[in-house]
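hey all, quick one before standup. I had two proteins in the batch that finished overnight and I want to keep them in one place so we stop losing track of which output belongs to which input. First protein below, input sequence then C-alpha cells straight from the run.
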Amino acid sequence: MKRQSVTIHPSSGRLTVDFTVDADAQTCLIEFGHSFTLRLEEHDANQLREALHNAVRELCITRRDTTDLCGKKFAIAEEDFVQQGIDAREASRRQKQMKGTTTAPSWDPNDPSNW
C-alpha cells in the first residue's frame, strides 16, 4: 500500500486529504479528514483527476495572470499576443518583399542634378 497526504485550505478551514493506493485490490482510497471517504477503481479515479484538472485549468485561464522575474504580477490579454504575432509576421513579410530592391533617392529640389 502506498500512502500520500495533502493539506488543503478550503473556506471551511484546514483539511488533510489522504490517498492510499491498494495495488492488490486495484483501488485508491481518498479520505477527506474524518468526514468523507471515497474508494475508487482506476477508471473512476482517473475521471476524478481529469475533472479536477479541467477545473483548475479553467480557474487559471480565468485568472490569466503571469509573474515576472521580480515576482510582480501583471495581466496580459490574449489579443495582445495575437496582435504582436500579426505585426511580427507582417514585418517579416515586408522585409522579404524588399530583399534585393533598392530605395529611390529622396527628391531634393535644390540638388543641381534635379534641374
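OK second protein, same deal, sequence then C-alpha cells:
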Amino acid sequence: MLVGVALGLAVGDLAGWKLDRLGERTAGPQTEAAAARAHAREQAERLVRATAELDRERRLGADRIRLLDQAEHTLREAFASMSVYALRANNQSFLQLAKTSLREFQKQVPVDLDHRQRSIDGLVKRLQDTLGQVNTKLQEVETERASAHAQMREQPQTLATATTHLERALQTLHVRGGWARCSCDESSN
C-alpha cells in the first residue's frame, strides 16, 4: 500500500513537472525531454529508495515485535520463577518464625507451670494449716462435749441416788424431824 502511495506521488510529481515544462514553451523539445527523463529518473530513484526504506522498516518492525514477544516471554518466566522463589522463601521464613515462637512458648510453659505449682502448693499449705487448726479445735470441742455429756449422764444417776437416800432418810422418824426443823429454820431466815 505504501509502495502504491509512493508510486502515486512520484507519478503526480512527474505529471506536475511536465505541465510546468509544457507551459514554458521557450525551451526546446529536446531540452524538455532530457529534463523530463532526468526528473523521471530522480523520481524512480526516490521511489526505489522509499520502497527499500519501507521494506527495511517492516523488517525492523517485525524484528522488534519478535524481540518484544521474546522479552515478554522471558519476563513472564522470570516473574513466575521469582514468585515461586519468594513464596518458598516466605514459607520457610514463616515456618522458622513459628518454630522459634513455639520453642519460646515451650520454654516459658515449664517456668509458668512451676510458678503456678508453687502458688498452688502455698495455698494448699495454708489450707492444711487452717484445717489442722480447725481439726484440733474440733477435737477439743468434742472432748469437752464428751466430758460434759458424761457429767450429764452421771447427774441423773447422782440425783436418783440422792433422791433414794433422801426418801429413806425421810422414812425414818428422827431424820424426818431434823429435816423438818432445817427446812423451817431456813424458811424463817
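Flagging for whoever picks this up: The radius of gyration is 69 Å. The chain is about 95% helix and 0% strand.
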